[in-house]
Amino acid sequence: MIFSDEFLNEIKEKNEILDVVSAYTSLIRNGKNSVALCPFHAEKTPSFFVYPESNSFYCFGCGAGGDVLTFIMLAEKLEYNNAVEFLANRVGLELSQKNEDGFLSRKKIIYEINRESARFFHKYLFTSNGKFMLDYIFKRGVKKETVVHFGIGGAPAIGSELVNFLKNYGFSFEEIISANLGVLKQNGNIYDRFASRIMFPIISVSGNVLAFGGRSINNNFGPKYLNSSDTPVFKKSVNLFALNFAKKSSKKGLILTEGYMDTIALHQTGFDNVVATLGTSFTREQANLLSKYSNKIYVAYDSDLAGKKAVERAIKILREIKISPKIVNIKNAKDPDEFVKISGKDANFKFNDLLEKSQSDINYRLMENQNLENLENNTEYKIEYAKKAAKILAEIDSPIERDIYISKICSQTDIQKNAFELHVNKLRKDKFKFKSKKVSKNARIRLSDMYDKTDFKKNINLRSAYIEEFIISYIIKNGVLNISNLSSDDFIMEFNRKIFEKILDLSKQKRTIDIGSISKDLDFKQKGKIAKIANSFFAKSIDNKEILGYIEKLKYERKLRDFKNSEELDKSEVLSFLDKLRVTKQ
After folding, report:
1. Which entry of 52, 86, 114, 247 is 20 to 30 Å from 463 by CA?
2. Are 67 and 514 a contacting pair, CB within 8 Å?
3. Are 373 and 340 in a shared domain?
4. How many CB atoms neighbour CB 546 within 10 A?
5. CATH number at residue 43
6. Are residues 22 and 6 in the same domain?
7. Which domain holds residue 413?
8. N- to C-terminal Cα separation, the chain
9. Which carries the bigger pLDDT value, residue 455 or residue 42?
10. pLDDT at 200 over 80
11. What is the rounded average pLDDT of the residues 522-530?
12. For the purposes of burial, counting CB atoms within 10 Å of the CB of 168, is it exposed (0-12), middle (13-18) or buried (19 or more)?
């Protein structure tokens, strides 16, 4: 798939890297640039830099670097074409490219299949055959206007009713199977994937129907919930139910639930800022998605043991992206849906009260490990509880927040604050050591890794490397190659020579010269090298006359190498070289 330079430039201009990166890690201004903890490896001290001027990034810890497209490829684990589409969708651009493999056409077709299927399911719900499902929905307290609002539908009993409908609409069997709405059986026939189920369409923030969640009301038809498998347009771990509505809410924060019915019940009660996971455990991708719309997250999971384990997982993931969630304690009910039913007309008031009384994630975890009776009367339990509490408090980065909780635990357990604080700090130190080892083993890149080891045999090569990088950075900053007397043979560093040859090739094709175009076909480590080179000198203001002086120095270094390596030199050649050397030195 080939995209025009104009289209790629527009994508990069509209997707400012500071805005894009801020959805994945917390940025801190550092002069013109910004710094953060790297989202691609564990680290304690920020080494991840974002450079708005060049619309690029580089991590001095793991060596990752590149433009905004490279960042999305790494952050979302996407191939190049998918990253282009991701960023295009992010800013509402229509894809403009030469479609060689039909990938985007297939995605467009699946969107169309999903849209027509959603209409089919919704219409079927209001037929005589779908009445038993509609009655069940009404019995669950869902109003008709809510059914319409969410586009809730119903799937026919086992058969091929939807498949035949889509086939008559003009879609092929292969396309229907690709959308995960048809299943090929051993007898060679294609049947509907969803049978006798209440259907919940999963809609993207841009309004496209991505997939479906199906709830069985008849145990003879497989598991209680059946969700679409991943398709070219859908990935369960990356999407959230009802985010298309919640993103428009005027309420502060987002409420995270475990199920479709929990979300629907709360929306109907007046909380339009509620979303749900899609039949999978909460993921970091979903956390990043939530953080794009709010940094205030309420977790309202089921009150049973499984729900509590899910809360622990959600807390850990949200903490990793620097969000401290509030935990909603669903009292006297197993889940938000049941809470709404029990509360009746007072549901809005009572659930709002739960939100206001929701606990910080730290306080919630401390309370879960606390037994007040034993805490008052049992010395051994006090020690056990203090140790558990210390592990929780060691995760808090804010010294103020940590101090408040330390004081609270010491008051409860009668432990001296100095002793308890010393223990907490030791746990933090041990944790940091573990992370440092992990980073050192898996992700560290040394300066010498920038080039082959043979490049550093002589000090003269260090001077050449510096000059070569300076020239490459100048070319990238200016976006054009206006240095006619420079040759790739003037470069001693193999990597820099390859970069310059790529620049020459782009220049001949009259293509855009930037970090992205130069590094497009390289691996991620090499992309990082280019980003580092480009930004090492990017802030310096250099005119064309000055860069010509650097070129002369580079050519001098080459002549010096040639002179030293030459086995046969006559007297006149030596004198001529020394005369040129004096001029260059001046």
Report:
1. 52
2. yes
3. no
4. 11
5. 3.90.580.10
6. yes
7. 369-432
8. 52
9. 42
10. yes
11. 86
12. exposed
Total domains in the fold of the chain: 5
Q: 209-216 and 48-51 as β-strands: parallel, antiparallel, unpaired? A: unpaired
Q: What's this model's pTM, rounded to 2 decimal places? A: 0.62
Supply the pLDDT for residue 8: 86
Task: Give the pLDDT confidence of 40-61 residue by residue, as tens digits.
Answer: 988 888 899 998 888 899 999 8
**Is there a single domain that holds both residue 494 and residue 400?**
no
- The whole-number pLDDT of residue 542 equals 60
Handedness of CA 154, 156, 162, 165 (dihedral sign): negative
* Residue of higher predicted confidence among 377 and 36: 36
Domain harbouring 359, CATH code: 3.40.1360.10
Residue type, 338: E
Q: Is residue 443 part of a domain?
A: no
275 in the same domain as 331: yes
For residue 94, the model assigns a pLDDT of 67
Among 364, 383, 400, where does a domain finish?
A: 364
CA dihedral 8, 9, 12, 16 (to 10 degrees): -160
Quickly count: other Cβ atoms within 10 Å of residue 213's Cβ: 22
Q: Which tens digits make up the pLDDT trace of 309-340?
A: 999 999 999 987 888 899 999 988 999 999 99
Neighbours of 174 (CB within 10 A): 12
**Distances in whole angstroms, Cα of residue 476 to Cα of each of 220, 479, 485, 534, 537:** 64, 5, 17, 7, 10
Q: Do you know the residue count of the chain?
A: 586
Whether residues 359 and 373 share a domain: the answer is no
Count other C-beta atoms under 10 Å from residue 170's C-beta: 10
The arrangement of strands across the sheet holding 209-216 comes to 153-154, 197-203, 209-216, 225-227
- What whole-number distance in Å separates Cα of residue 514 and Cα of residue 537? 14
Same domain, 396 and 423: yes
Written as six digits, the tokens of 85 are 């589409």
Q: What CATH number does the domain containing 576 carry?
A: 1.10.860.10
Q: Is residue 441 part of a domain?
A: no
SS in 3 state form for 88-118? HHHCCCCCCEECCCCHHHHHHHHHHHHHHHH
Contact 482, 544 (CB under 8 A): yes
How would residue 1 be classed by pLDDT, with cut points 50, 70 and 90? Answer: low
Kindly indicate the confidence band of residue 76, based on its pLDDT and cuts at 50, 70 and 90: confident
Element of type H or E holding 83: helix 80-90
Give percent of the chain with pLDDT exceeding 90.
Answer: 42
